[in-house]
Specification:
Radius of gyration: 22 Å
Shape: globular
Structural class: alpha/beta
Bound molecules: flavin-adenine dinucleotide
Order of helices and strands: EEEHEHEHEHEEEEEEEHEHEHEHEH
Number of helices: 9
CATH topology of the largest domain: Rossmann fold
CATH superfamily of the largest domain: HUPs
Number of domains: 2
CATH architecture of the largest domain: 3-Layer(aba) Sandwich
Helix content: 25-40%
Number of strands: 17
Length: 349
């Protein structure tokens, strides 16, 4: 493998049912930064699907300079083998230096298979991506390589943060969880160069047949889309007591979320869990109420614009990441806060 042949930052533009997933746009935002640091001019989105050409302009508006399009009926619904074949073929043909994939159910299936097929490494569930020297600390025992993709992720159950590089193989591949990276503000009317690529599909034993797709009807709020989150932890005390958080959320037009302790206790569904094994959120306002601030929780909410913590323990680690902290009993503070907010909103009309 000649590493010099590999150039450019690529993202896998996930679409489902002909709609781009938010993660595709988030990855484009990050790819732009990485491309600038590498003095690369172009960010490339790889779009796989059937009858999906109409999505190209949206990718352009969110930062794609070029879209490599593989449009084939074999790619209508996600199936491991044809998608792996298509993405691996794109890599063989266009030789990206970096390829980012969303850590979604699809990306978690596709990314490792593709990396194995093209014989490179993949770092899963990255929380930060940068360009820099590797090893991080110069060592006489090892040649320093410049402009490497430094992929950072929690390791050992979230007890440490590891920075991983892939200096000897290409592309450097990473998966990133939804909500971690930021989209750029869309550039209305932007256009991308479109390259249509046909890797040829030959059905083999690994092609699964989709008999039926059953979609789960979810009545649970999308906490990643919420601008205001009122998050409760074990300190709330009981599922019934979440009512005081729901009242606060309602007054603010926000959404209730929670810590893992709450999910493990069966008080709230897993879809509402914030953190390393839950969802990564980035609301404008995040209330952490009766949440201690364990590293695995903080990993999922620390990028929120403003964090307000309410906790009776003044030494709770959540106060280290909070912009505002209130020390006291949530059972008194939260209803009082809700009352004040309602009064203020009523006075405003
Ligand atoms: C591999 C791994 C992955 C994990 N992933 C996640 C994850 O995704 N998300 C997550 O949240 N956790 C995760 N955890 C669990 C995490 O380590 C903590 O155990 C969990 O976050 C604790 O939840 P909590 O803060 O609600 O509960 P606790 O740690 O029990 O904290 C409760 C807090 O409530 C306060 N409190 C109690 N009563 C009151 C009151 N009346 N008024 C005000 N404050 C009060 C207490 O002072 C305390 O600080 C993970 C752990 C591991 C090992």
């Amino acid at each position: 493998m000649s590493l010099e042949e590999y150039k450019g930052v690529f993202i896998f533009a996930q679409q489902v049912d002909g709609e781009l997933s938010s993660i595709a746009l988030e990855l484009l935002g990050k790819a732009k930064n990485l491309a600038e640091d590498l003095d690369e001019k172009k960010v490339t989105a790889v779009l796989l699907g059937s009858d999906v050409k109409g999505l190209v302009d949206k990718l352009a508006e969110y930062g794609a300079d070029r879209v490599i399009l593989v449009d084939d009926p074999a790619l209508k619904d996600y199936r491991t083998e044809p998608y792996t074949h298509a993405l691996a073929s794109v890599i063989d043909e266009y030789k990206p230096e970096i390829l980012l994939v969303g850590a979604t159910a699809i990306g978690r299936d596709l990314g490792p298979r593709v990396s194995s097929r093209v014989h490179t490494g993949l770092t899963a569930d990255c929380t930060s991506l940068d360009i820099g020297d590797f090893p991080l600390e110069p060592s006489p025992a090892r040649e320093t390589k410049h402009k490497q993709l430094l992929m950072t992720r929690p390791a050992f159950g979230g007890n440490t943060i590891a920075t991983i590089a892939c200096p000897d193989f290409r592309p450097q591949m990473a998966t990133v969880r939804p909500g971690v990276m930021q989209k750029i503000d869309p550039i209305k009317g932007a256009k991308a160069e479109v390259v249509e690529f046909n890797p040829g599909f030959e059905e083999n034993d690994c092609y699964t047949e989709i008999v039926k797709i059953v979609k789960e009807a979810s009545s649970v709020a999308d906490i990643q889309a919420a601008k205001i989150l009122v998050s409760g932890g074990r300190g709330v005390g009981s599922p019934e007591n979440f009512k005081i958080l729901e009242d606060l959320a309602e007054a603010l037009n926000g959404t209730v979320s929670c810590s893992r302790a709450v999910v493990d206790s069966g008080w709230k569904p897993k879809d509402l869990q914030v953190g390393q094994t839950g969802k990564t959120v980035r609301p404008q306002l995040y209330f952490a109420i009766g949440i201690s601030g364990a590293i695995q929780h903080v990993a999922g909410m620390e990028e929120s614009d403003i964090i307000i913590a309410i906790n009776k323990d003044e030494n709770a680690p959540i106060f280290d990441v909070a912009d505002y902290g209130v020390v006291g009993d949530l059972n008194k503070i939260v209803p009082a806060l809700t009352k004040k907010i309602k009064e203020a909103l009523a006075a405003k009309g």
